[in-house]
Amino acid sequence: MNISGQTPPAPPDHPSGPRPAPAVHAEHLTVVRGARTVLRGLGFTVPRGRITGLLGPSGCGKSTLLRAIVGTQAKVTGTLEVLGLPAGHAALRSRVGYVTQAPSVYADLTVRQNLEYFAAILHPGSVRSRLRSRAGDSAADRRHAEVTRAIADVDLTSHADAVAGTLSGGQSNRVSLAVALLGDPELLVLDEPTVGLDPVLRRDLWSLFHGIAADRGTALLVSSHVMDEAERCHRLLLMRQGEILADDTPDALRTRTGTGTVEEAFLHLVDEAARNTAAQEAAPKETVR
Hints:
Blueprint: E1 24-33, E2 36-46, E3 51-55, H1 62-70, E4 76-82, E5 85-86, E6 96-99, H2 111-122, H3 127-132, H4 139-153, H5 169-181, E7 187-191, H6 199-216, E8 219-224, E9 235-240, E10 243-248, H7 250-257, H8 262-282
Helix pairs in contact: 2-4, 4-5, 7-8
C-alpha cells in the first residue's frame, strides 16, 4: 500500500540465470475497427513481478489493448506475445487472469458457488499450485483450497454464502477479481478494477495488488483513468488517442517533465504531443515532380 505519494519499491529482480520472457511483449501492435485505427503501432513490454499501470482518458484504447492481450480482440496485427506465447494461445487460459469493467459473475449463485463453478472449468491445479499441494490431496481438495484463498484475498469471507445478486457493486467487482485469482495466474489483467469503490476499499485492493506482485511474482497490468492511482504503480504506460505517450516509472516521468505529479506529467506530454502534431501539419510539404 502506498499512502505517501511515492512510487512503491519494486520487488527484486529475477535471480541470476536464464531470464523468462516478459509477461507481455508488443511490437507494431495495431487494431483497426471499421474505418478507425484504435491502436497505432504500439511497442512496449510488461515485466513480471511488477504492477504496470495503463493510464489514459476514456476512449483512448485501454480496453481494446487489454482485450488484445487476453486474446478476445479481433483484427489485431503486429507482434503480441504473452508469457512467451502468442496472445490468445490455449495454453494461456489458466496462466492469465482477466477482470472486465462489468462484474462477470452469476447473480443467482452464491460467492462460493461462483468460484467453485469457475474453478472446475479452469482446473486451478496448475503446475505451480500442484507443487505447493500436499501429497495425496485430491483435485477437489485443491479446488476448495483455491476458492477459499481467493475469497479471503478479496476480503469476502463473511459473504462467501451470500447470493451474488444481493451484493453491492463494489462487492460484485471483488467477486470477479477473486475468479481471476483462481489458479495462481502469472499475469493479471485488470480493466478499471477500482471504479465505483470507496477510498478504503481502493486502498485495500491496491495493498492486495502489491502483495500479489511481491509474494507471488505475478505481473499485473491495471488500467485506470484516475491519475492518482498511477502513483501506486511500479511502471506506467500513458495512452492518448490510441498511442503510447510514455513508458517509464512514475519518478522518471516526473523528472523528465519537471512536474510534481503523474497527472501534471501526463498533461505536459499531451501538450507536447499536440505541439509536435501542429508543427508537422504546418510544415511545408515537398512537391513531387
